[in-house]
From TrEMBL:
Gene3D superfamilies: Leucine-rich Repeat Variant (1.25.10.10). It comes from the Eukaryota. Belongs to the CAND family. This is Cullin-associated NEDD8-dissociated protein 1. The keyword Repeat applies. HEAT repeats lie at residues 53-90. SUPFAM superfamilies: ARM repeat.
């Protein structure tokens, strides 16, 4: 190590000598090598060497060669991290001194040096950074006072940089010194100096104390109230803009003072002042939305006036003579006027931007915007300045987008009332007319804006396409003309046509297809490949519209078929891969729709498509093409089908997943539609590749492979003769997988049903039954408890094959019935019950003797799993014969009090199976009165489990007959018993289903009565009511449209901690705190979380945040939920979150610094770790809020985290994970 140190010092001494060389290249290389030496971890400079290096680098800053100066600056930046504090101060003082030099070259390089030093100062080293900052501030304040404008400018720029990075290190008296230095510069004759002064003042307000801040505000007030020149007023308004942007939380309390003055100055006859006022209003709208609410009408009126502000132009074109006179008058008044002197466009543009922000941020004013703003914006589409017109279009697009966002969760019945959508529909004719006029303008940018606006309009109001397509077509045809449009407009036009074709309103477009087709074919011939691709894409959709195969057509498509075919065929051989792939798909669409017109050309074309199937690059596209052709209702002849199957079989062992998925689907389609043309020998190649696809690693591929096997079994069963050895081992592995459920399980059942129908040797009913039951019989005792899912899977498969072979059903049921005895193993008993239940669901088992008794006896078996299986089996069997079994179940509920819960579960299975879809409900209607009365008798059972099942049954029965049963529930919700009220409210929760249902119209009228139980004195009733509200908000939000204003305060009230519900319980020598209100608070916060995700636009976000802030200090479970809500709000409403940041940061900081007692149990440590991780995730979400760096509390918490190694590790690990996602 000593040798290495000596060697380093020797190298540095040598480099110092080379730095004095008269050769500039030597000096440059010496400094470059010095940087390398200094950056080494092993190098530590002594005092003498430090002095020499610092002195030499400062000297080289005055070098005549610019490159040497620049690399010397770079070396200084590296050096300050290695040298002592006093040396850094020496460098800074020397640089500050030279920064005020009269020589431009010396001054410039010194300023660059100071910027480099500032950027390299360590954030964590408080003393060094504070001292250096104070040194720089003192010198820069002096420089600002110099008469040399260049020195002032550079000093102000450096001050802004320094404060931006290290403002929190600058003390109050230095802030005062800076303020006193920059105030006179607000009135400087040099605009650049004014702007830099404003920048310094804007950054200062983030870090200065209240005394300095008050001084700044007072000066701003005086500056705007005293009549300075227009230039000075402009500067002060810019400063207000900067202060609000940088420290809006501080400035928000002064909005009422400054906003009237900004509005007043916006009327001055000075375009720059008007623009600055409008820009300041924009920042007020963005940063202080709550404070400007009372002034919104004034701001809107002002912006609308300024949107039409164009004193140098006359828009009245109705009277040409008058227009000419006006132009002459203008010319006489200002002979030297030109468009270059016109700055009014800046005012109009700022007004448009301001209106766009209002529309985006104030969704509650949409109705007012449509009444006042929408007509004005439509009128201003005639704006002469291209950029201003684009901003007006964007403003209207923002209005449409907000309309879409705010109404997408509302019901159709609500939208039929007075709403933004209704007002848009009324104004649509004027809007479409104005857009169509602009589509033929010479400005390409304007045309593109038209297409964007039309897209947004159709997203909100899809019916407009059908109503106004005839008005739009002329503009589209004009834009499709290659001579009148550039490439960008052509692409946008084609993209828009493709977009409107996606609405599938074929009838609206068919009358115009004859006009569009020639122009589309013309674009396909374009030299630019992107236009060709887009043209082919549009052509593909147009083919569907020309001859829809499921409807009639009024198009004379025969005129264009040959041209379309020839144009596309040429592109099949195109050199560009994108063009070639799209041509393949378009050609497939042509064949699919017009094969009967192209008989002579099909063989050549199909051979070419087969070649594309063999090609590694185009094979996936070719697979999609063949799928389109194979599914055509025209039943296109495919002479290449056997060759295609052989090629496709080779794709099944490829690694590319999407290739395998599309291949399997195509094979299934080909076998279904061309089974009589397929050679069985080719299918053997397919079968050989299938076993490897049947595994749980990719369940989707396994599922579609089972579908393919079922199709083969249906059309070519002989191919499956040998699958016992090849495929069945993989099938059995899948059957044992816990992932086999849902659609995958259905596919497995259908496969076995298809297989048993084949009557293959060794795969008959009895063979398959043995195969499916062997895993249960051969299962070891250890695996019986681990693999419980296999009972349910195999029982469904046994039932599936039995339903197909009904002649075996009763014998099999009797065989399994023998296994339902007390002495038989629980696993076999469980499996037998499930099999009998699944078979009984489809086949009436009434004729089997003692079946009821056997199932009831199973209720007495010790195993809870067997009891539940017996209950499930009884419910399933009842579905096979309701007349026989349902009265029996209802009777058992009354006569078997000890087994009441199990019998209720059976009834629940029956009701759940028949409640949805609605068509099944008719089977149960005759039994409902008897069931209903029996359920009401047991509503007040002391067992919560029984009450829960009864609630669900009552709710599902109400779904079947809402007219009669819903009023009964309304009566019972007034019952004196709180238990009955809670059961009834929960029953309504089960009437809320995702899909549309006839009960919705009844609930819309009555849901308020059930939700009024949020004011019930009983805690459990209120909790049930919150659960009901959460379900409605999640699934049927439109039911709450008229109730939110009254219900929200009740929900917010339940988020508060009720001290009367907190009790201290003694447990031996220990005391334990029990909070009986915790569950209801959690339910209330869960409701808030649902509202946040479903209808944040209809909620006062500030009030919402107030209750979240309380939740951040609550119990562990509630904290976790509120952290998640803060994360979502940071994305959805960042401006509002930023305003409440101080209140959010306080509990987050408390969580980060929280500690538990060393004597605490392990669970407490784990909970704390989880809380801290959630807090870090929340901080990362907050960190992405624009301008979050202006919040001091957030910055302090981040600094606190960085100073704690444990917290830093958690924060950085979550940061890496978030970036990875």
């Amino acid at each position: 190590m000593a040798d290495m140190m000596a060697s380093s010092f020797q190298n540095i001494s040598s480099l110092l000598e080379k730095m004095q060389s008269p050769d500039q290249d030597y000096r440059f290389m010496a400094i470059s090598d010095m940087i390398v030496q200094i950056q080494k971890d092993t190098v530590k400079l002594d005092d003498e060497t430090e002095q020499k290096v610092v002195r030499m680098l400062l000297k080289l800053l005055e070098d005549r060669n610019g490159e040497v100066q620049n690399i010397a600056v770079k070396c200084l930046g590296v050096l300050i991290k290695k040298i002592k504090h006093e040396r850094v101060e020496t460098i800074v003082m020397d640089l500050c001194k030279n920064a005020m030099s009269e020589k431009d070259r010396i001054r410039d390089i010194s300023n660059i040096g100071l910027k480099t030093v500032i950027s390299q100062l360590p954030l964590a080293s408080g003393d060094l950074t504070r001292n250096i900052c104070e040194c720089i501030v003192i010198e820069l304040v002096k420089a600002v006072k110099w008469d040399n404008v260049s020195i002032q400018f550079e000093a102000l720029e450096l001050l802004a940089d320094l404060l931006n990075m290290f403002g929190n290190f600058v003390r109050s008296h230095h802030m005062f010194a800076i303020l006193r230095a920059i105030i006179p510069k607000f009135c400087s004759p040099r605009q650049a100096v004014q702007k830099r002064s404003v920048a310094v003042c804007s950054v200062m307000v983030r870090f200065c104390d209240d005394v300095v801040y008050k001084e700044i505000i007072n000066h701003m007030w005086n500056g705007l109230t005293i009549n300075y020149s227009d230039s000075d007023i402009h500067t002060y308004i810019q400063c207000i803009f900067g202060i609000c942007r940088e420290a809006h939380q501080r400035f928000s309390s002064h909005i009422e003072e400054f906003l009237p003055m900004i509005l007043q100055y916006s009327l001055k006859e000075d375009d720059d002042i008007r623009e600055s006022c409008l820009l300041t209003l924009q920042i007020f709208i963005q940063k202080c939305p709550k404070e400007i609410t009372t002034h919104l009408s004034e701001i809107i009126s002002l912006c609308m006036d300024h949107l039409t502000y164009d004193p140098n132009y006359n828009y009245d074109y109705e009277d040409e003579i008058e227009n000419k006179c006006n132009v002459c008058a203008i010319n006489e008044d200002s002979d030297n006027y030109s468009d270059d002197d016109d700055t009014a466009w800046k005012v109009r543009r700022a007004a448009a931007k301001c209106l766009e922000l209002l529309v985006t941020n104030r969704t509650e004013m949409l109705m007012e915007f449509y009444q006042i703003l929408s007509p004005a914006l439509i009128t201003r589409f005639k704006e002469r300045d291209e950029n201003v017109k684009s901003d007006i279009f964007q403003t209207y697009a923002a209005l449409l987008k907000q309309t879409n966002l705010s109404t997408r969760h509302l019901s159709a019945s609500f939208l039929e009332k007075e709403s933004p959508v209704i007002m848009l529909q009324e104004q649509a004719p004027h809007l479409i007319k104005a857009i169509c006029e602009q589509m033929k303008q010479n400005s390409m940018k304007t045309r593109r804006d038209c297409f964007n606006l039309l897209r947004t309009l159709f997203d909100v109001f899809p019916e407009a396409l059908n109503l106004y397509i005839s008005d739009i077509i002329p503009g589209l045809l004009y834009c499709l003309n290659k001579q009148k449009s550039n490439n960008s407009v052509l692409l946008d036009t084609l993209s828009f046509i493709h977009y409107i074709l996606g609405f599938h309103q074929v009838q609206a477009l068919q009358p115009h297809i004859n006009e569009i087709i020639p122009l589309i074919l013309n674009t396909i011939d374009h030299d630019y490949y992107r236009i060709t691709v887009e043209g082919l894409l549009v052509l593909q959709e147009l083919i569907k519209a020309m001859r829809p195969l499921n409807a009639s057509s009024i198009c004379n498509y025969g005129l264009f078929i040959k041209d379309i075919y020839n144009c596309t065929f040429v592109r099949l051989k195109h050199s560009d891969i994108e063009v070639k792939e799209q041509a393949i798909l378009t050609m497939a669409q042509i064949i699919s729709n017009f094969a009967d017109f192209l008989q002579k050309d099909l063989s050549v074309c199909l051979s070419l498509l087969l070649d594309r199937l063999r090609n590694d690059i185009t094979r996936l596209t070719a697979i999609k093409a063949f799928a389109m052709i194979a599914m055509s209702p025209l039943r296109v002849e495919l002479p290449v089908v056997n060759e295609a199957i052989l090629i496709l079989s080779s794709f099944l062992h490829q690694n590319q997943r999407i290739l395998k998925v599309n291949t399997i689907n195509l094979l299934d389609c080909l076998i279904r539609n061309y089974y009589d043309h397929i050679n069985i020998d080719y299918l053997n190649h397919v079968i050989d590749e299938l076993p490897v696809l049947l595994n749980e690693l990719d369940l989707h591929i396994a599922q579609i492979t089972l579908v393919l096997l079922k199709t083969i079994a249906q059309y070519h069963p002989s191919v499956l003769q040998g699958i016992t050895e090849k495929i069945f081992p993989e099938i059995m592995k899948l059957l044992k997988s816990p992932l086999l459920q849902g659609t995958m399980l259905v596919a497995m059942q259908q496969f076995f049903q298809g297989l048993v129908k084949c009557h293959l040797q060794g795969l008959g009913y009895n063979d398959l039954l043995q195969i499916l039951t062997n895993p249960i019989l051969q299962m070891s005792d250890k695996k019986k408890n681990k693999n419980k899912h296999i009972y349910y899977t195999l029982s469904k498969c046994v039932a599936a094959i039995t339903v197909v072979c009904r002649n075996h059903a009763f014998a099999v049921v009797n065989q399994f019935l023998q296994n339902i005895n007390v002495g038989v193993s629980n696993s076999l008993c469980l499996f037998s019950l499930l099999v009998i239940g699944e078979i009984g669901r489809e086949i009436d088992l009434t004729s089997i003797n003692h079946l009821k008794d056997a199932i009831l006896q199973s209720f007495l078996i010790d195993s809870e799993e067997v009891k539940i299986a017996a209950s499930y089996a009884l419910g399933c069997i009842a579905l096979g014969n309701l007349q026989e079994y349902l009265p029996f179940i209802v009777q058992e509920i009354e006569t078997q009090p000890d087994q009441q819960y199990l019998v209720l579960l059976s009834l629940q299975e029956v009701i759940n199976s028949l409640s949805i879809p609605q068509e099944n409900a008719s089977e149960l209607l005759g039994f409902i009165p008897e069931i209903w009365q029996q359920l009401l008798l047991h509503c007040q059972s002391p067992e919560e489990g029984i009450r829960g099942v009864i609630s669900e049954c009552l709710g599902k029965l109400t779904l079947m007959d809402p007219t009669r049963l819903l009023p009964e529930l309304e009566e019972h919700v007034k019952n004196a018993s709180p238990i009955m009220r809670a059961v009834v409210v929960l029953a309504i929760k089960y009437t809320i289903v995702e899909q549309d249902h006839p009960i919705d119209s009844f609930l819309r009228q009555n849901i308020g009565q059930f939700l009024n139980t949020l004011q019930d004195p009983d805690l459990n009733v209120r909790r049930a009511s919150l659960m009901l509200f959460n379900s409605v908000a999640h699934n049927k939000l439109f039911l709450l449209e008229d109730l939110l204003d009254t219900i929200l305060p009740l929900i917010y009230n339940e988020t508060k901690v009720n001290e009367f519900l907190i009790q201290e319980v003694k447990m031996g020598p220990f005391k334990h705190t029990v909070d009986e209100g915790l569950d209801i608070r959690k339910a209330a916060f869960e409701c808030m979380y649902t509202l946040l995700n479903k209808c944040i636009d209809f909620i006062d976000v500030y009030e919402f945040l107030n209750h979240i802030e309380a939740g951040l200090k609550d119990h562990y479970d509630i904290k976790m939920l509120t952290y998640l809500m803060v994360e979502h709000l940071a994305q959805l409403r960042p401006k509002e979150v930023l305003q409440e940041m101080d209140n959010i940061i306080q509990p987050l900081s408390a969580t980060c610094t929280m500690k538990v007692s060393p004597r605490s149990v392990q669970q407490e440590f784990e909970r704390l770790d989880e809380l801290k991780k959630c807090a870090m995730r929340t901080l990362l979400a907050l960190q992405k809020i624009p301008n979050i760096e202006t919040n001091l509390s957030f910055n302090e918490l981040l600094m606190q985290i960085k100073n704690s190694p444990d917290l830093t590790q958690i924060f950085e690990s979550h940061s890496v994970q978030k970036n990875a996602h």
